[in-house]
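Ticket #4471: structure output looks truncated?

Reporter: J.K.
Steps to reproduce: submitted the chain below (442 residues) through the standard prediction queue, then opened the result file.
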Amino acid sequence: MNVKTTVQKYIGVVGAGRMGVGLAVDLALAGFPVWLQSRSVGAARAACDRTIDEVTAVGRLGVLAGINAKRAIAVTDGADSPRATFLVIECVPEEAAVKIAVLGGLRERFPEAMLATNTSSLSVCGIAEAIKAEDRTIGLHFLNPPYMFRVVEVSPGYVAEDRVSQVRDMLVQAGKIPIIVKGGGPGFVWNRLQFALLREALTLVETGVASASEVDRVVARGLAPRWVAAGPLATAALGGVEGFTTAAMTVLPTLSTRCDLNGLARAVAELEEDPDGDEASARLRTLAALAGVVPDLGVAGSGDLRRGVFSEIDHVGIAVRSIDRAVGWYESHLGLVLLHSEILEAMPVRLAYLDAGNVQIQLVEPLGPCKVAEFLDTFGEGLHHVCWAVDSIPDALRSAAVDRGPAVVLGGRRRRTCFLLEEPNRLRIELTEREGIDAQPR
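Returned output as attached by the reporter:
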């Protein structure tokens, strides 16, 4: 069943806190008709409009997309919610009694709709049993804010496979990556991994191994960039299972086994008070939300671009109509620093590079007819390409099984560069050699 394009049923969201508003906006931007239930209709409407304006302000989406998204969200106090609803998602506080009460009411109001809890820790089966709707209660754990993250944890509970598939198809249409979670206990996958790392991070701070800002910096500038390209299991495969297994014999017995996070507030306060604290991670998270960077892209019609082949992002390219205007926005709103600018007359484009911590942002302004100008005419300002650094473009293309030879040109900072096209998003993948032309043997 194609919920989006054929049935045209609504998706309902109950609760207009940060998560509820973010989820309504995310689904509306993806083209779904949405209703959002709130006790304060005016405040919820304003929050949705403000969030859409923030997302579209930097060119991630065009103005028209923002207007259409605002029109797609109907804010209600619950008395006049559309009956033609395929799915209702509760986004109320993480308390079993509250969620059960809300979903129990929704079961009566929408006897045919799927019911979803956005819980990140409670038992989906327990909630389904409590509201006596085992056949249509599912867990959908969206990460906050939803328009920043693509992963959604799907906990089927007792729901039949065909109905789970309908919800999964809807998520895929919304640009999400559904992860089916079968059991596993409280916290599903995301929170179990997150709390395991948080427990160890807090222990490292409390035992004086490293300061709060240093621990955050190791993750933001070390582990996180690595995990962008490959998760922990793939990292072990790349690094060698034998080596990881040997190291584990020394490290694992010493890891924290604490069952609480007492002292977390103190560590966070230390982080906030540190004048040299790491702001890059926050800036990069904001940038990712605005640009929608997706590192594990495929290249349609050009073979199999396997994840992990290109493992280091060199920079993220954003097409803009005016670099002067864009630089000012990035400096004032995200605190990014302008590093370098240049003109490539052969393309012809003007480039500007900004520092965003562990990745650089390349703003690209067309100076005449070119691919960037075509992109702006078609899509407006926004993410144009993700650039991967490689030692050799021909070797990288062979490793990725790309069977067409793209043109190699002289790009920014005098590096050899080529572009591939990812479908269906029409996002370019740029490969650039790490060494500049001047550093290569003649």
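Triage note (M.O.): checked the attachment and the full token line is present. The chain has a mean pLDDT of 81.
Status: closed, working as intended.
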